[in-house]
Amino acid sequence: MARYDYDLITIGAGSGGVRASRLSGKYGAKVAIVEGTRVGGTCVLRGCVPKKLLVFGAHYAHHFEDAVGYGWTVGTATHDWGAMIAAKDKELDRLEGVYNRMLRDANVEIVNGRGVLADAHTVEVNGKRLTAEKILVATGGWPVVPDFPGKEHVITSNEALDLKERPKRILIFGGGYIAVEFAGIFAALGSEVHIVIRAGEILRGFDQDVRATLSAELQKQGIKIQRDCTIRSIEPCDDDSYSVMLNMGEEIRCDKVMFATGRAPNTANIGLEAAGVRLNARNAVAVDADSRSNVESIFAIGDVTDRVNLTPVAINEGRCFAETFFNKNPMQMDHANVPAAVFSHPPVSVVGLTEEQARKDHKVRIFTSRFKPMVHTLSGRDERTMMKLIVDKATDKVLGCHMVGEDAPEIIQGLAVAVKCGATKAQFDATVGIHPTAAEEFVTMRDAVPEKEQATAEL
Q1: Which of 7-11, 228-232, 400-404, 449-453 has the lowest mean pLDDT?
Q2: Is this model's pTM higher than 0.70 or not?
């Protein structure tokens, strides 16, 4: 008789858990995946996909305005928020069906219910105990809202994606990628938007030039940014609006208050302590390069490990797990030079080191280009693109590529291959640009920024 019910039980059916389970099942393992809500996880249901659909919808507001400069006569355009949300929900239902089908086709058993670890080989679901040789924790992260008077009145990105109507006025507390993405969506569709941040600038952790450029572009769109502030309290008003008091004594009236102050690993109340799994200072599952915890039979991937919290990273970690343990093909995820994008208005995309990071270990040359995109020479839109290369002086290797501007994610995805391969600035220079495109600027920047003009400190 088999010692365990399964070879693998995965807790959490998000992108990483689904990839690991599906591949493991394909390689012949007996697999169960446990999910307490819907299959698809944060990316498909509460993050990347629905947010990007709303970003696409918001872009049309700009497209209608820009078309006039190209000779189009555009009638009065109106937007139906409810229709967009309904269309988004229909697409999410379709994707959930695709995920369920992929799991079934790989002979993965889907167990509906909240999975809780009982010991190193046992998961309890709905009062039933399931055992496995290996257990994979892929429970992701969850939005964090700190305690303060009025906390019960706020929404997070989870609820923002399901609002029944667009708020006329919204205050977003936080300056990370989720905050600026939603700020762009609401502002383009006609909302009055306030961003309140504790820091001196948005997008902490990004390159200083990226932060300053996007900040300027957001403010051109009428988005108000309140820096060095915190929220003291939130109180409901008689007209269904809210009074938000800032720590400096200023009051802002709005219809919704959204908190985008980060996400925490989803490790609470799933039995990790009972199974002896060690958590780090951020309450994330501490794992080694093979995604193994301190308990030999328990592994973790994705945001619950708080390594690089991006969906494609979780998917690749899931693949490495399945290849290593169920396909006799040892593989480890390389977390260096992972490209990323912020789907703001305009978008941001980066790969490699920021200037501030690079200066810690390298002497660098900095190349930048700032220009009005060709599309706006006729549209008249006051929007600027910024591109930046960070180059190691000693080796000529390109350490980082950064861009704020239209199509930035599509452009940086290709450059990420070059950075991953260790391309040099000379190789960039030897590459013929595609003309006329914005992307060609990355291979035509010849003059380094003078040392005295280079940024040397983070905001």
Answers
A1: 449-453
A2: yes
Over residues 31-73, the pLDDT tens digits come to 999 999 999 999 999 999 999 999 999 999 999 999 999 999 9
Question: Distance between CA atoms of 24 and 198, rounded to whole angstroms?
Answer: 44
Q: Are 224 and 193 in contact (CB under 8 A)?
A: yes
Whether residue 318 sits in one domain with residue 230: no
Cβ neighbors of 243 (< 8 A, separation 6 or more) are 234, 235, 236, 237, 251, 252, 253
Higher-scoring residue by pLDDT: 452, 25: 25
Domains held by the chain: number: 3
Is there a catalytic annotation at residue 376? no
Asked, for residue 340, whether it belongs to a domain, the answer is no
> Pick the catalytic residue: 59, 63, 335, 435?
435
- Would residue 193 count as lying in a domain? yes
Query: Which residues sit opposite 111 in a β-bridge?
Result: 34
CATH number, domain with residue 268? 3.50.50.60
Q: Kind of pairing, strands 242-246 and 251-254?
A: antiparallel
Co-location of 280 and 134 in the same domain: yes
Q: What is the pLDDT of residue 295?
A: 98
Spatial distance between the Cα atoms of 189 and 185, rounded to a whole number of angstroms: 6
